[in-house]
Design brief:
The protein is of the alpha/beta class and 260 residues long. It has a single domain, classed as TIM Barrel (Alpha-Beta Barrel). Helix content is 39%, strand content 15%. It has ten helices and eight strands. It has an eight-stranded parallel sheet with strand order 7-6-5-4-3-2-1-8. α5 crosses α6. The relative contact order is 0.17. It binds pyridoxal-5'-phosphate.
Length: 260
């Protein structure tokens, strides 16, 4: 699946190669977040910028850290775990796993992650909880929702989320913080905004009758191509890779199931 968004990615997202480049890119993204916040009366401090570093090598991640980056998002566990080990000296750097998880990788996630954003099954919840309990750790989790209705997206259908949330207090090591989604990969801003608005309404509904211990505040949505729209619709976390690090050579189908 090639990225169907208009315009060649390489031109839209030049590669950051120095600490100054990273400072520039972070400032540019933060400025767009601030502008989107101004549009709807939000405080920009309420939006966390998660720099998505998949495929990015250690040297460039260290530059991003030197430019002030403290949160990294990685889609694949193996890659994330190797980077965490290699950069264990950067003690203030936190890792968020944002990709679909298989139960056989839950042990690794329990060891190094500060957050897991793609929870969408009780099997994965149980596996994470078991390993976390053994390590005496807790983990912030977000439930992934399929807001686009596309078969090519992971995540629970919106109408299954309330019943799913009711099961989660059984897993004492998981701290449920909110919801995550990928919008439709479309250049139709109305369609993309519709996905984000659906998430905002879902969060409002869930907040009213969330089970004890389940705290639905976070809304992780928006990537390089659509984060400003997401912030306008209430995102509290944006996951931005290419607009910070530069265009990725690998196609998105390496990370999401291909469209049928
Ligand atoms: C890669 C990825 C992103 C970031 O995409 P960019 O186009 O690099 O901004 C966001 N969310 C998930 C789940 C991803 O895998």
């Amino acid at each position: 699946m090639n990225d169907p968004r208009p315009g060649p990615r390489a031109a839209a997202y030049p590669h950051a190669a120095t600490i100054a480049d990273f400072e520039h890119n972070f400032a540019a993204v933060r400025e767009r977040i601030a502008a989107a916040c101004r549009n709807n009366g939000r405080d920009p401090a309420g939006v966390r910028l998660l720099a998505v570093s998949k495929t990015v090598d250690e040297a460039h991640i260290r530059m991003a850290h030197a430019a002030g980056c403290r949160w990294l998002g990685e889609n694949k566990v193996q890659e994330a775990y190797a980077k965490w080990q290699a950069m264990a000296d950067l003690e203030d750097l936190r890792w968020s796993v944002i990709g679909h998880l298989q139960t056989n990788k839950a042990r690794q996630v329990a060891r190094f992650a500060s957050e897991f954003q793609a929870l969408d099954s009780l099997r994965v919840a149980a596996a994470l909880d078991r390993h976390l309990q053994a390590l005496g750790r807790g983990l912030d989790v977000l439930v992934q929702v399929n807001s686009s209705g596309e078969a090519s997206k992971y995540g629970l259908p919106p109408d299954e989320v309330p019943a799913f949330l009711r099961q989660l207090p059984a897993f004492g090591a998981l701290r449920v913080r909110g919801l995550m989604t990928l919008a439709a990969l479309s250049d139709d801003a109305v369609r993309v905004r519709g996905c984000f608005a659906l998430m905002r309404r879902l969060r409002e509904r869930l907040r009213q009758d969330a089970p004890d211990g389940v705290d639905i505040q976070e809304l992780s949505m928006g990537m390089s191509g659509d984060y400003a729209l997401a912030v306008e619709e209430g995102a509290t976390v944006v996951r931005v890779g290419q607009a910070i690090f530069g265009a990725r050579a690998t196609p998105d189908s390496d990370y999401w199931p291909p469209a049928p």
